[in-house]
Amino acid sequence: MGCVHLAAPDYSIQDGKTFPINAEQFHYLVRHNHVEFPDLDQLEIEERNSVDTLSRVITVFQALWFTIKELARIHKGYPITTLELTALSFCFITFMISILWYHKPSITKPQFIETKDGTTIQQIRTSARWSTHLDLEDTYYRTPLEFIGRKRFGIDAHWSYYVSLAHKLRINFVSRPITRRPWDRVPSDMWICPSPWYAPGAAIVLAGFSIIFVLAWNFTFPTEKEKLLWRICSAYHAAFSLYGGAYYAIEMARLNRKKPAQAPRQLSDMQREQSDLLDTESQRSPSERTTPARRRVELLLERAISWRNLSDNQDPNMEVPLRIIIPITITCFAYVLSRLYIYLEDLISLRKQPADVYLTVNKFLPFLAGGV
């Protein structure tokens, strides 16, 4: 939900209008003397990690023991089922998450930081408009300080599009919709562009998860049709996952690439463009401007354009071109069907398996000879 919330006279704790800030925004506030650096030592940071360490250890141990037993079965030449292979894929992700989130605290209550000398958020924005962000607009879409460091990340825009679509269909399968402005929390499913040095590790995790279902290419299936469907779905799963990883890398590189700042548009330029549009419209014949067919086409175009941005407040950073979202939707739908079949086959394939799948290894020392 956000570890640090900023409080100010116009966004106070009493009014329930505080909002989360990230590290870059916090650095900006301290650097420009808007807040005092809080006395938050290492001990207090560690105490804010309220996740039960014992539950983490038990979960990882169970996944590790299951993985060891399955590797022992493979080592002895025993066959495994697709259900066990799917469980191994979840164990693999569990290990990676446990490693990468080892220091991730569980935040249920934010740490409030108040502005210095009663400085209001409006004063901070006004100061930024005169010093660091000359083209700062009056409107904000998430928090009043979003102008500090916020960049459009294509992956987050695409994901937010589908989340907004699900919310409009009354399907809250991912996260609760945020109804307050400014935001009172950071959504847990928000995609944030990582630093490039995370890419090698992410590529290893992605490659392992992508190809794991292909390992069942020559497994025993009840029928040849089921084996063929498994091969198709597992191959598509691998291709889609690798394609998604490549697309993620492209968006990450695009965001991290530094671009020269564009000069703000002059008022005279905008007035000239509006004048040109009016001149063009006035030169058209009345029939060209008012024909029913043309009007119907314009209505269809307006309806199509409205589907490019499904965010409640029409955040321009959440706009996705239809030429991109339509192909992605089709490929994602096919991916969902592939995953559903994989889960379904995990269950129905149990009706007919070779007898060797019921052979066990030593429960206590799996790699020793003799099953129990």
TrEMBL record:
Region annotation Disordered: where it falls in the sequence: 262-292
Keywords: Membrane, Transmembrane, Transmembrane helix
Record-annotated membrane-spanning stretches: 83-102, 197-216, 228-250, 324-344
Source species, domain of life: Eukaryota
Protein name: Uncharacterized protein
Species the sequence originates in: Fusarium piperis
